[in-house]
Design goal:
alpha+beta, three-stranded antiparallel sheet, elongated
Length: 60
């Protein structure tokens, strides 16, 4: 399992570190906390991004 630190994960998701910290606080993204540092599995990042997917052509 490859773990990303908070800076690497924010770059992968393309949001700020502050924005990622908000997602952590709201428990909207899976993470691991080791000591005082947050880490993210690449699979968890991909799963989060797939949950954010909005299908084109949907009814409103």
């Amino acid at each position: 399992m490859n773990l990303l630190d908070i800076r690497e994960a924010s770059e992968r998701i393309r949001i700020s570190v502050c924005g990622l910290r908000r997602l952590i606080k709201a428990r909207k993204i899976s993470f691991r906390k080791i000591g005082k540092k947050f880490f993210f599995a690449e699979a968890d990042i991909e799963e989060f991004l797939s949950r954010c997917l909005v299908q084109a052509g949907g009814q409103e």
